[in-house]
Amino acid sequence: MVLNFAHRGSLTEAPENTVAAMKKAIAHGAQGIELDVQLTKDDQLILIHDHHVRRFNKAVKGNVRDYTLAELKRIDIGSSFSEKFAHERLATLEEVLEIIPKEIQLNIEIKNAPIMYENIEVILLACLRHRERTENTIISSFDHQTLVQIQQEEPNIMIGLLLKQQIIKPWQYAQNSCLNVYSIHPDKIHVNQEFIIKCHEAGYKVFPYTVNDIATYEQLSSWGIDGVFSNNPAIFSDR
Ligand code: G3P
Ligand code: CA
């Protein structure tokens, strides 16, 4: 079975990483949901991919980190997607954890570069414990040092090794890291059958990003992929 993760919620159907995007993903039966977290000026966990808000609202200057949660909550981030979402606001992690059923596998990506958030690991784990969501949740990041800190704080949590570049033998890198890696998350263009076989032999699942067409999905499936991140996982739901 290939696990279909809705990427940033279901981002083709609603503004990414919002409550609306999560609701869309849940409504069409996503088995997994991926989302990105960062910290506001007052250290609140907020869902957003970029370090700034201007892709959603050109009037907003500076970075997410420059604003408190209350200030960010006043910004319309939905109109640029569609007038239908004019009231949509950035979501806190607490808000989405409240609506995402525990059966859905979560992948929380810590966006910790180029802006680094001191203490984000402790703040994130406190939130997950509070919501009883340390199980069935993978924590991933391109910043592998942040994953080391996550593991130190919560040794049993699932760790997803997120890869940007094509590194040599990622399965060996994972084995040589001090991380207890659950899954490797490569760019789909770096994946071939050997990649998947080697990762499986080393005991890791492989979840490539971002797979949005059926031909790529079918090829990865035939190679034994474990799951994919997709901007609209509904297109694979009958496969
Ligand atoms: O976690 C997979 C994928 O989301 C990583 O890339 O840039 O979409 O966050 P990005
Ligand atoms: Ca992401």
Task: Describe the 3D structure.
By secondary structure, this protein is α/β, with parallel strands linked by helices. It has a single domain (3-236), classed as Phosphatidylinositol (PI) phosphodiesterase (TIM Barrel), CATH 3.20.20.190. It contains 8 helices and 9 strands. Strands 1, 2, 3, 4, 5, 6, 7, 8 and 9 form a 9-stranded mixed β-sheet that branches. The chain is globular, with a radius of gyration of 17 Å. It binds SN-glycerol-3-phosphate and calcium ion (CA). Calcium ion binds at residues 34, 36, 109.
Which short descriptors sum up this protein?
single chain; nine-stranded mixed sheet; binds SN-glycerol-3-phosphate; TIM Barrel; 239 residues; alpha/beta; binds calcium ion
Topology, please?
Blueprint: E1 3-7, H1 19-27, E2 32-39, E3 45-47, H2 69-73, H3 93-99, E4 105-110, H4 120-130, E5 137-141, H5 144-153, E6 158-162, H6 170-176, E7 181-185, H7 193-201, E8 205-206, H8 214-222, E9 227-230
Parallel strand pairs: 1-2, 1-9, 2-4, 4-5, 5-6, 6-7, 7-8
Antiparallel strand pairs: 2-3
The protein binds SN-glycerol-3-phosphate and calcium ion.
